[in-house]
Amino acid sequence: MKYRLATEKVDSLKLFFIKKLRKEIRYEDFFALKNVSFSVRKGEVFGILGSNGAGKSTLLKIIAGVMKPTSGSVYKNGNIAPLIELGAGFNGELSGVENIYLNGLLLGYSKRLIQEMIDEIIDFSELGKFIHTPLKNYSSGMKARLGFSIATIVQPEILIVDEVLAVGDDKFREKSEKKILSMMEGGTTVLFVSHSLNQVRKLCDRVLWLDKGEVKRIGLPNDIITEYQSR
User: Fold this and answer.
1) Are 59 and 33 in contact, with CB atoms under 8 Å apart?
2) Which ranges of 65-169 would DSSP assign to H, the alpha helix?
3) Which terminus of the chain has fewer CB atoms gathered within 10 Å of its CB, N or C?
């Protein structure tokens, strides 16, 4: 994944456009991801480790179809339920209930399915009376709980989880981990990003270590985590 970045700082938008018209702006290529290649087995929980800026979220967005790669291809076999950004697909002015319908439709659920499952979604989210409150009043943890509850109400073939379980209380985090484990048993493939090494060690079958946009190593959780911690 390549971006073109300006090599100099321009103090105003007006000056930027003047320089751009005069072709005085110089650019350099920045690779958020470079030569990344891997495969994930059906039913596997595949962890992705890396420091901030390593390219983890960019990689998941490309896999989910949110971003288009500048080169290369992604081959997917199954429907994807992405939990990539808190509040993505939500409207802050709408209530939790209304956002269940909005987000569910964006994930490809039918209105009938949402109607059938809405009580279960609300119950799993543990939002109680706040489900009728506008989402702009929710904490990040409440949004994460609602987003997770919507995305996992059906058994997706591929679930993408990016740091969502890092937000919220320990009780809901444990509940979410159990949900992921039950989905694994049902054959769901999970792509999992977390800064919690304990979660990665507990949940993942294999781990990819991403460093400055490139694959440093792929292997078993304990092996990768030990090497990652000693870097």
Assistant:
1) yes
2) 96-106, 111-125, 140-151
3) C
Structural domain that includes position 22: 1-31
185 and 146 in a common domain:
no
**Contact status, residue 179 vs residue 152, Cβ threshold 8 Å:** yes
Residues near 64 by beta carbon (within 8 Å), at least 6 away in sequence: 80, 82, 84, 160
Q: Where are the beta strands (DSSP E) in the chain?
A: 2-6, 27-31, 45-49, 80-83, 158-162, 189-193, 206-211, 214-219
Going by C-alpha positions, the residue among 115, 112, 106 that lies closest to residue 84 is 106
CATH value at residue 186: 3.40.50.300
177 and 188 fall within a common domain? yes
Q: Are residues 51 and 64 in the same domain?
A: yes
Q: Are 10 and 41 in a shared domain?
A: no
The verdict on 162 and 209 lying in the same domain is yes
Q: Are 184 and 190 in contact (CB under 8 A)?
A: yes
**Residuewise pLDDT in 10s, the chain (231 residues):** 655 555 667 667 766 666 667 676 665 665 678 899 999 998 899 999 998 888 898 898 889 887 888 888 999 888 887 777 655 678 999 999 999 999 888 878 899 999 999 999 999 999 999 999 999 999 888 888 898 888 888 888 898 888 766 656 778 888 887 887 787 788 889 998 888 898 899 889 999 999 989 999 999 999 999 999 988
Question: What residues pair up with 208 in beta bridges, in sequence order?
Answer: 48, 218
**In the numeric block, which tokens belong to residue 12?**
């105003």
